[in-house]
Design goal:
By secondary structure, the protein is mainly beta. It is 0% helix and 53% strand. It is built from no helices and eleven strands. The strands form two sheets. Strands 2, 4, 5, 6, 9, 10 and 11 form a seven-stranded mixed sheet that branches. β5 and β6 form a beta hairpin. The radius of gyration is 14 Å and the shape is globular. The relative contact order is 0.32.
Length: 126
């Protein structure tokens, strides 16, 4: 019912910027909460950012550097990443929840989302 496709990843130097995009198809995309997660080599998948009717949310490690936004008309969600660091290197995944409207808690758990993209590689060299 919902498909997500990430794009915009690449290899950049520390301090550079990248903009990741997630194209969503399906009825749920207009109102559901959307999130970004990342998984570095040998590590568990971790929360990066989320956007819902109740607001935007960020992991402490990316606050002030990353910005999540959404364009419902285009069915896309973006993650603007500035001042990239080598520790940001990971595969970044876009996720969509079945739940629309406002959230009373931060949707930062994997189980908060139902649909996932295939991921896009972000590599930051020092």
């Amino acid at each position: 019912q919902v498909q997500l496709v990430e794009s915009g990843g690449g290899l950049v130097q520390a301090g550079a910027s990248l903009r990741l995009s997630c194209a969503a198809s399906g009825r749920t995309s207009s109102s559901s909460a959307m999130g970004w997660f990342r998984q570095a080599p040998g590590k568990e998948r971790e929360f990066v950012a989320a956007i819902a009717s109740s607001g935007t949310y960020y992991a402490d490690s990316v606050k002030g550097r990353f910005t999540i936004s959404r364009d419902n008309a285009k069915n896309t969600v973006t993650l603007q990443m500035n001042s990239l660091k080598p520790e940001d290197t990971a595969v970044y995944y876009c996720a969509a929840s079945l739940r629309g409207g406002s959230w009373l808690y931060i949707p930062k758990r994997i189980d908060d989302y139902t649909y996932w993209g295939q991921g896009t590689q972000v590599t930051v060299s020092s």
